[in-house]
Amino acid sequence: xxxxxFGHLFRVTTFxxxxxxxxxxxxxxxxxxxxxxxxxxxxxxxxxxxxxxRFTTQRQExxxxxxxxxxxxxxxxxxxxxxxxxxxxxxxNVDQRSKDYSAIxxxxxxxxxxxxxxxxxxxxxxxxxxxxxxxxxxxxxxxxAIARKIVPGLTVRAAxxxxxxxxxxxxxxxxxxxxxxPFFCPDAQTAAVWEKFLDEVRGRGSSTGxxxxxxxxxxxxxxxxxxxGKLDGDLAxxxxxxxxxxxxxxxxxxxxxxxxxxxxxxxxxxGNDGRPQFLSNNAGGILGxxxxxxxxxxxxxxxxxxxxxxxxRTVDRYGRETEVATKGRHDPCVGIRAVPIGEAMMACVIADxxxxxxGQVGEARPWPFSPPR
Length: 373
Ligand SMILES: Cc1cc2nc3c(=O)[nH]c(=O)nc-3n(C[C@H](O)[C@H](O)[C@H](O)COP(=O)(O)O)c2cc1C
Known about the structure:
With about 375 residues, the chain is an alpha+beta fold. About 25% of the residues lie in helices and about 20% in strands. It starts with a strand and ends in a 13-residue tail after the last helix. Flavin mononucleotide binds next to helix 7.
């Protein structure tokens, strides 16, 4: 069985293939009367769009989004707002070059999904990877732009923190830098290192992996649905569901295994605002599958692009051994364009849990509680 919908109350269904006429999504469950303009979605799509630097695929897709349903003019504000009915977002594909793929239509690219689609469905759309193409993620980014508007005060940002072996220096982390270089890198000096590194990788006809860090601030405490809908579990699934993702960690993540109990404990004090103040955030903002109110911090690792110019041994659909080298247009490091995709998935998961929390608990009991008399 296939599954193209995610979320419970904020529900996103995506459709479309890389070389079909269009891709898009239906967002169901969005609350009514949320102001929403085409530009709100377009600005996020523009950050994911291909062909913006020599470091991403040269496929030229404007990714112009059309909102076909779910909006109406609010009679009081005069603004365009959501109606509570399904929003259909459509993005036309305009720069498909299917002939680039005809030479490898019967040959599996090692690391791509042609073989698994074939063994599952008995056929696969070889043109640009069909449904397995990261073109589909444009629809996720569009849905994420709506999700961001649902939770008041929510900010979701992401950055590339590692490319190949080269990590950013966290002491030089500057969010403003992310918009100033073609890598979404928060550290200007590391961006310069990556530029040289990726030119060399691309020049060899190779590719490289990367790590993306996603941070959500302004997340209310209490979101998450233990025990099978934990916030960290849903977040891990959403990030792992991004094409080429091979690992996800929350907070200290795998490094938690090397910490002692006292190092790992996020000690608590009372803040001036009457809320607890955590003195560190190894938990990544989630305890027991429920948000603490601290920033939610997640990282995901993506593998190197499997379409490379360097020949690799493989087999074809008819069981014959051969070699493949992929021509055509590809991202030498898919992690770059995965940055806005990670933000979108985080926003969708938080929006869904925000609505679920409102549905189950409604108004939260004020904390701290009064001691019993
Ligand atoms: C933004 C982005 C762009 C991608 N572009 C390419 C590409 O140009 N060529 C390629 O082989 N894979 C590309 N991928 C990865 C494939 O979509 C992915 O490896 C493939 O669907 C197999 O799935 P899996 O790696 O998740 O197992 C891209 C991934 C992302 C996130």
